[in-house]
Structures
1.
Amino acid sequence: MSAVPLPAPAAARPRLAPWLLRLHRPALYVWTALVLLTAAALLWLGGPLTDAAASAWDQYGACDWSAHCSYDQPAILRYKDVANYTTLAVTAVPFLVAAWAGAALFGREMESGTAQLTWTQGVTPTRWLTTRLALPAALITTGTSLLVLLHHLAWTAGEGRIDTAKPWYDTLTLHANGPTTVALALTGLAAGALAGLTLRRTLPALCVSLLAVACTRGLADLAMPHLWPAVTRVTDLRQDPAGTGLTVDQGLVTATGRHIADPGCGSTLAPECRALYERLDATAFYTDYHPASHYWPLQLTTTLALLTLTALLTTIGYVTLRRTTGGRRRGAAV
Amino acid sequence: MTDTAFEAAGLGKRFGRRGGWALRDCALRLPAGRVCALVGPNGAGKSTLLALAAGLLAPTEGRVTVLGTAPAAARARVGYVAQDKPLHPQLTIADTLRMGAGLNPGHWDADTAERVVAAGDLDPKAKVRSLSGGQRTRVALALALGKRPGLLLLDEPMADLDPLARHDLMGTLMAQAAQYGTTIVMSSHVVAELEDSCDHLLLLGGGRVRLAGEIDDLLAAHARVAVPAGTDLAPHTVVESRTTGRQLTALLRPASPLPSDWRATTPSLEELVLSHLRNPDALALTPAHEEAAA
């Protein structure tokens, strides 16, 4: 620490955060409502709806089908609907964040010149950007984490009790259950910021940030199974290929141990399949997959990858802003 | 404290790597306390020059200094009103001024800001989005004046004002300049609009400085002459000349006292500006060129 007292006392720093909240009050209300409503729906889903659906499935399981069988079908359907809608809502969060950040938080302010107005009001562009990233990032992280946690709890409550509940590796459920959604929401914020700062127009920034999040989400889906070593399971040709979880690859093992593509014939119970496998010199099925125990390693590696991307986009945003406005070099007092 | 409010050397700005130069080789020096008219046709680079001085754009080449330091370091002391008067439409006038106070802690003059707004008969509770163009200008100006800037940069401040409001706001500005010694640079493509209030002129054309200096000095350095056709005008610098019938009229920059039989008059500011804009090849007159010639 330097012994020289700073010329500007802390009280004399421009107060940006209250004005950011004031200017984006509608967005804050919408976000709060979205989080609260979805959270309420998830609590309802994890509690009463899961119990009702689970007992309905018990009734269904007890049916002997020789006579009239009655079970609470509406409870099962209600569970399914609410589960689907809440999963979709949690999945949509990063997209909503990206659209808002690109359009309202950055694009519109750059287009209308109100960002520049702030920079000529004793606030450096760097500090402006920091406030505009940090405060929303805190609110987004808090809200999304809450939703993801409740989604995970609701999903766990139904696990093994409800036949129609989604498996852990269902792509929407997989992300909605874990921190990848929080990381993707932050990527959306950073992408929106960068799009707004570079395009300087509302609509293009909105489209580009949405597209960026959609692509990132797609890439994350593709990359996730490869971010952690998969487990290989070999099964006899008389059975079907086995290994329940996030499948990476599936095929046939030949007598030499080579992995070849599965023609999709099925088990050797069918004589024509047996002939086909003999022709291919196949001895077994193999499945490269992630069992449920890989859930956290997969979640954490993907989250890390997304956060790295977010940091990269944020850095580019700062560099772009500094290059456009000619701010002082890094390390200089701001 | 420096006696130069705004200085540029070799200043150039190009938008995009392959874009054209909005401003090139710009050298100027504006002493503190002046009210400077920044004049030039559309696309001359006026807005670019003001945005560079306000620290909103980084120069592609050369350097710009305001109030003795880099624009990025002078934010707190420089006021700037952009051409389209950006304000947050969802805020009320009172909120807008409160924001000014919040963003300029320690150097916000609430009285001045409120006085500028009150002079326009504006309701502080009115939302900015409900204001007319002229009323917006007044609020934007209040926001810029409230921080009591040492240098005030105004981009086409009077463009959407009626003559009465224009006169009114100009009065407010001049009072501010006189009271606090604020240096004001205001751009316009209408010379007449600024002639009465400004004492310094900066004429841009095609991205370069064509004329720079005190208006009185610039006028005194030029002469409009009417002489018989065929008269040799050397060694004087000819800005513009036209022969009609047997008479040659020209706008000159005399290199020495003119012959007594030449009918010479002092040009008006508008004539001076238009002659220079019509003749982009005429030698520019700026302090930099004077120093080079000396």
Note: Residues 73-112 of chain A form the longest helix (40 residues).
2.
Amino acid sequence: MKKTKYMMSGGLAFSEQKDMEKLHKKSLKGWHVKSFKFMGYELEYGEKEDVIYNIDYRVLEEDEKEEYMEFFSSAGWTHVCSEANMHLFKAPSNTTPIYSDKDSKVEKYQRLGKLINGAAGVLLVASIAFFLLSIITTGTFKDIARIGFFGVLALTVPAMMTAAAVYYQKLRLKI
Amino acid sequence: MKQIEQLTDSVFYIMAALSNPRHGYAVMALIEETTKGTVNIGPASMYTIIKKLLQQELIYLYDDSDSRRKTYLLTQKGREVLREDIERRKVMIQLAENGLKEEQE
């Protein structure tokens, strides 16, 4: 069994660059990403290597995957893992970044924004629905609606913060 | 998605390379070779731009028999857009060259 350990993510929407830099430093010490793990990464111990990490967000159709991966591998990037439309790649530290121009980088955050805005929107509608339900109902239904409201709200707030963070990233790139 | 009006340098390079049928890696390699390594297009940028050009019908899927290495080619519309941008860039270069010449005289 190889030694593994968990590294928590700072939240990709908030600190993608910091995450990538942290992973780079870990690799210098011999810890390499094996896979995404709940809110973070699973690292595996091995040879010390100077590798950098880049992440892409993209919805890929089944017939697009092979070509997409081929683009990266022929440019020197090794696919590490994918989950929920996030794709993590690594390469020797002098490799050209996967995004080399501003326009396509802005579009990267637009795609991420769309994914998150969708989720945040659904949650927002759900929390409003529970709130209204808790007003118009009485007794047990009111209690259930209240619990539902706070439960969904606990997810809505971070989702909306994430959406705001992505929007900010996008804005910063455009200036 | 916003229509490409003025082609960015990356888009210009990629469209120029697709005046002949080429797959993604061949495009990247051609650009790197022609510019002696001064211009490198990252794979995610490349993929984004190819998808955008397809959507705007400036290029089309020429051959997908190899699913890893699909080839693309400029459409008639793509050729026109590229020609227009060449003219725009010529004006830029002429302005700069004339300016430098006048300075020398």
Note: The interface with chain B takes residues 54, 56, 58, 63, 66-72, 74-75, 77, 96-101, 103-105, 107-108 of chain A (CB under 8 Å).
